[in-house]
Amino acid sequence: MLTAIIVLATLLLAIVLVLKFYPALGGVLTKEQLAAFSRSAHYRDGKFKNLSTTVMDNSASSIFSMLRDYMRTNPNRRPQAKLPLQQLQFGRDDKGEQARVTWFGHSAMLLELDGKHILLDPMFGQAPSPFPFFGNKRYSGKLPFEIAELPQIDAVVLSHDHYDHLDYDSILKLKNKVRRFIVPLGVGSHLERWGVEKSIITEHDWWEELEFEGLRLAAAPAQHFSGRNLNNRDSTLWCSWVITGRAANIYFSGDSGYGAHFKEIGEKYGPFDLTLMECGQYDPRWSSIHMMPEETVQAHVDVKGKTLLPIHWGAFTLSFHDWNDPVERVTKAAKQLNVQVATPIIGEPVSVGAGRPPSSIWWKTAQ
After folding, report:
1. A single GO CC term, please (predicted)?
2. Is 82's pLDDT higher than 60?
3. Which of 5, 98, 113, 338 is deepest in the core (most CB within 10 A)?
4. Residues contacting residue 166 through CB under 8 Å, at least 6 positions apart
């Protein structure tokens, strides 16, 4: 009995120490930060809230069905062959005459706009987990570049603090290359804990606009949630982003369920030359926080987008659907609504407004 008590006490102590000191779990908000959040219209009872009520099915039958789906063998949840990669080549246009986006799988992208290099949700790790040696591994195994090869990054723009969007190891490797971090309210606390200078971090609420060296950005609503630890759900804000330069107007959805906010964003900031819209890791049981693929296309229409680049797929298995189901359903729905879709392979640049975008059905070769 004494041995069992000692083992249990040791285990509990280890858990407490990990939760308190393990850096990948992120920062702790100060009393001053929490007091400042109270000025936000989206912050109530110590948490950030969505614009509309977000309901997730947590019934016993839903939980049982998720356990059942998790235990089922489905070889199509991961590609059966290596994904094609195109080695990243930087085509910086210092005159800003051509905008382009390079997708690295999931929601990580490089935006080249008006002579600036901007990384969006640069999760470059092998698994979206605080303990990456246990997580679902990246399909491609590697990226089409080494972080050390990247040039100076003018800004990193983050949509929220989940592990598949904000990665500890990636930030450690990037932080000395980045001139500015532009993030939603509270997310800067994680960056500060990881050694990013507070002076280069700016935090923003929904509908807050900022100017960054000639670019205009706006933090816009999304319908999602946040949190990296057991006790900090919704303690930081999540958002989508509008990024406008001379060469193009870009919309980045972050993670979001479908909602009326897309039309409002379109009315306020559209039309957009290119939309970067999440389309993967969905399920009817949590569709309020992750759009179904057909809703992705409708959201693109709502924000008045011209070309749609579907993201949040092609890197990790975080749901129960086939790994390539998102792009299959998006392209089918887009055809019905006469929407132009870009389907680049990982590392292939998409030039904005320069004829037809990449449209190969490359995922068929990885089945």
Report:
1. cytoplasm
2. yes
3. 113
4. 121, 123, 158, 160, 187, 190, 228
